[in-house]
Every structure is written in structure tokens, then in C-alpha cells.
């Protein structure tokens, strides 16, 4: 069966690497990976993929020129699986068009209704708020992707997040950073500005093989039944540490880690990243971004101090992985403090263009 997953732009290669454990990757596109896997893997893909937002079972894809043509394409397929259920069409549109994503949803929704009506003499129920089945029609420039959303609420929304840091990192990015650091479970990993602990919790869950999609519902439940396939966990003890300036966030990080079942393998401390001591194999963090002009000077001082502290705590094989929207500043200050860029890439994070760096000593 053909599938695609959506993910964040800039980490598609990390997502594709994960998918290789379950199926054959056919194409890597901007923000999505198209692959082939057995239909029976739908529960496993949803429960176990760490760097994907949504798993869509692909019905059809191709090029189109107008909404009328899209209507005919969508109508030409069978929607027997919606029988006795309600549905809604959701659309993501990328590119410049003379129609909106709402137009696409409306036209495609009508096409699904008309197709079913012709075949079954029965009108399907539409429920825009809580549909049983979500049909996805994603439009990217002159291409359409028609499929069934098997996920529902995005996979990046982790079940363990009981404390919501106002600037918490998307778990997909956190996990991708740990993977890109090349962290091995026996290596030490520190997040010196850990906030609510996302990076460390994702690392611990990776080490213990805890499924990110445990303890939640999925859209496929209404079609395939409520089956969840989590992976087999272990009790590995890892060397993970988080430092954070505010006690409130440290308490929140502990609550999150406890919920995730990994608090026994992460040490969280209130402290100052600029006074970091010790030696670490991996230093992975997302510092505050100076989005407000008034904070630019303070951010420069903070990044300068962070780079100096990190450099002090690295040995010759340590990796420092950092993501920020202040990438020019970070690049300049890292170089000034004697850190060498090993790798850099843009990651689109909501409306923000951020850069992920891997620095070596
Ligand atoms: C963007 S947030 C990190 C969010 C975190 N990755 C998460 O997912 O919750 C940056 C964090 O750095 C902390 N911070 C700022 N300056 C610091 C310093 N000098 N030492 C330690 N933490 C600091 C802030 O309090 C904030 O919680």
C-alpha cells in the first residue's frame, strides 16, 4: 500500500531513515515522504514513528489543472470504507492558486458524496468537527495527493506533555536533533537550556524504545478498530542531564519525564548554562530566540556565553547541536569561540525559518 507522511521541512531525511524500518521509501519531497508498506502496518507506523506528523494512506496522486478536474479525479474513486460513517475533507495547500484550501475541501467533499451516491444510492454524512473518516486532499503547486488520514491529531503532540513550556520545542525537531547528533545510548547528553525537557525526554524514549504514540487515539480506529502496536520497551539507564534557569520549568520537565516513564534516567537541575561544567559527548539545545528587537543585545550575550561554556565542556569527539532562528548570530559567535561547523540546515518551524547546526570543537 502507498503512504505518505508529513513532517517538518528540513528533517525529511531523518523521517525517511525511520520509515526504512517499516517500508520502502519511494520519494522524499518538501515536508513529506512517500513510501510503500503493508496495510497492516498502519497501527505500527502511527504508534512508533518519532519524526512524522501524520500518516496518510494514499488513494491517488497526480497533476491537475483546475478545480473541475480535481472534482472528476476525486469522484472517480470508491469510498466504500466510509459507509455508515461521517466524513470530512481536510486540505493543505502549498503554492499559488486562484482557489483556497477551503475551495478544495468543498469541491472534493462534494465529489466524495457524489461518487458514493452514484454507487450506493445513499448520501454520506458530513461532520466537519468530529468526522469518523478524514479524507485528505493536499495540493502542492499543480499536484494533488488524495488519501485517508490514519492519524488524526498530529503525532508531534506527545502524550507525556503534562507541563506546557511557553516555548517548548516540537518533539519531531527534538528527536531529529538527537538523531543528527549521532548520540549513542551509552554516551552522555546534556541540554543546558532544557526548558520542559523535550530533547532529553525524546532521547530517553529513544533509548528505552518507548513508543511516542502510546496512550492516545488515532483516526484509523474508526476504520480498522482500536488496535495500537507499541514497541517492546527496556529499562536502559542513560547518562542524560538537563539544566534550566527557572525552577518552574525544571519542575515541569520532571513532571513530563515522570509521565513519559523516564525520570529515573534524567538528572534535571536548576542552573546557569553559561556556568556549565564537566565534559559531555553530546550537547543538544534550543536556546531562547531574540524575536523581540529589545532582546537582541541580551541574546548576543547569551549565545556568546553559551558557545564559550559549551566549548569548555567538549572533548575532541563531542557534538554540539543547536537550533535557532538567530542563525547568523549563532554562526558568528560559535566561530568566534572556536567551534567549527560540521553541518547546518534550515528547518521550517511553524512560521519561523530556523537553522540547525552541528558544531565540533
Ligand atoms: C526555547 S526554551 C527551551 C525549550 C525546551 N527545549 C522545551 O522543549 O521545553 C529556552 C530555555 O532556556 C532557558 N534559559 C535561558 N537562559 C538560560 C541560562 N543562562 N541558563 C539556563 N537556562 C536558560 C529559558 O528559561 C528557557 O526555558
Provide an overview of this structure.
The chain is α/β, with parallel strands linked by helices. It has two domains: 2-149, VC0802-like (2-Layer Sandwich), CATH 3.30.2130; 171-212 and 219-360, Vaccinia Virus protein VP39 (Rossmann fold), CATH 3.40.50.150. It is built from ten helices and 16 strands. Strands 1, 2, 3, 4, 5, 6, 7, 8 and 9 form a nine-stranded mixed sheet that branches. It has a seven-stranded mixed sheet with strand order 12-11-10-13-14-16-15. Helix 3 packs parallel to helix 4 (101-120). The longest helix is centred in the N-terminal third of the chain and has 20 residues, at 101-120. The radius of gyration is 22 Å and the shape is elongated. The model has no long low-confidence stretch (mean pLDDT 96). Residues 165, 167-169, 193-196, 198-199, 243-246, 249, 272-274, 286-288, 302 line the site of S-adenosylmethionine.
Keywords:
alpha/beta, seven-stranded mixed β-sheet, 2 domains, 361 residues
Topology of helices and strands:
Blueprint: E1 2-6, H1 12-19, E2 24-29, E3 32-36, H2 42-48, E4 54-63, H3 67-75, E5 86-90, E6 93-94, H4 101-120, E7 125-126, E8 133-140, E9 143-149, H5 171-180, E10 189-191, H6 198-208, H7 221-224, E11 240-244, H8 247-260, E12 266-270, E13 280-285, H9 296-312, E14 314-324, H10 327-336, E15 340-349, E16 352-360
Parallel strand pairs: 5-7, 5-8, 6-8, 10-11, 10-13, 11-12, 13-14
Antiparallel strand pairs: 1-3, 1-4, 2-3, 4-9, 8-9, 14-16, 15-16
Helix pairs in contact: 3-4, 5-6, 9-10
CATH homologous superfamily (4th level) name of the largest domain: Vaccinia Virus protein VP39
First and last CA, distance: 46 Å
Give the class from helix and strand content and strand pairing.
alpha/beta
CATH topology (fold) name of the largest domain: Rossmann fold
Determine and state the CATH class of the largest domain: Alpha Beta
Helical residue percent? 25-40%
Strand content: 25-35%
Shape: elongated
Amino acid at each position: 500500500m502507498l503512504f505518505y507522511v508529513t513532517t517538518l521541512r528540513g528533517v525529511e531525511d531523518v523521517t525517511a531513515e525511520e520509515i526504512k524500518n517499516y517500508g520502502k521509501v519511494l520519494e522524499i519531497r518538501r515536508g513529506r515522504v512517500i513510501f510503500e508498506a503493508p496495510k497492516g502496518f498502519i497501527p505500527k507506523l502511527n504508534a512508533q514513528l518519532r519524526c512524522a506528523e501524520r500518516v496518510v494512506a494514499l488513494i491517488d496522486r497526480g497533476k491537475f489543472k483546475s478545480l473541475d478536474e480535481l472534482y472528476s479525479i476525486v469522484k472517480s474513486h470508491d469510498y466504500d470504507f466510509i459507509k455508515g460513517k461521517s466524513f470530512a475533507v481536510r486540505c493543505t495547500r502549498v503554492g499559488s492558486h486562484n482557489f483556497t484550501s477551503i475551495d478544495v475541501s468543498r469541491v472534493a467533499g462534494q465529489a466524495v458524496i457524489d461518487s458514493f451516491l452514484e454507487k450506493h444510492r445513499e448520501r454520506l454524512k458530513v461532520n466537519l468537527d468530529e468526522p469518523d473518516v478524514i479524507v485528505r486532499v493536499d495540493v502542492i503547486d499543480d499536484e494533488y495527493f488524495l488519501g485517508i488520514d490514519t492519524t488524526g491529531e498530529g503525532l508531534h503532540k506527545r502524550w507525556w506533555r503534562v507541563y506546557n513550556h511557553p516555548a517548548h520545542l516540537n518533539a519531531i525537531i527534538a528527536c531529529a536533533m538527537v538523531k543528527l547528533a549521532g548520540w549513542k545510548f551509552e554516551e552522555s547528553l546534556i541540554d543546558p537550556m532544557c526548558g520542559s525537557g523535550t530533547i532529553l525526554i525524546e532521547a530517553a524514549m529513544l533509548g528505552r524504545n518507548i513508543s511516542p504514540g502510546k496512550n492516545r487515539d488515532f483516526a484509523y480506529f474508526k476504520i480498522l478498530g482500536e488496535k495500537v502496536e507499541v514497541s517492546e520497551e527496556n529499562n536502559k539507564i542513560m547518562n542524560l542531564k538537563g539544566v534550566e534557569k527557572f525552577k518552574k520549568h525544571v519542575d515541569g520537565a520532571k513532571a513530563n519525564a515522570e509521565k513519559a516513564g523516564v525520570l529515573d534516567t534524567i538528572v534535571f537541575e536548576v542552573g546557569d548554562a553559561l556556568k556549565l561544567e564537566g565534559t559531555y559527548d553530546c550537547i543538544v539545545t534550543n536556546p531562547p530566540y531574540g524575536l523581540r528587537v529589545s532582546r537582541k543585545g541580551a541574546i548576543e550575550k547569551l549565545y556568546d556565553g553559551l558557545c564559550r561554556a559549551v566549548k569548555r565542556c567538549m572533548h575532541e569527539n563531542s557534538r554540539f547541536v543547536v537550533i535557532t532562528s538567530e542563525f547568523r548570530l549563532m554562526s558568528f559567535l560559535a566561530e568566534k569561540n572556536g567551534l567549527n561547523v560540521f553541518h547546518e540546515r534550515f528547518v521550517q518551524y511553524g512560521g519561523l525559518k530556523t537553522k540547525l547546526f552541528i558544531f565540533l570543537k
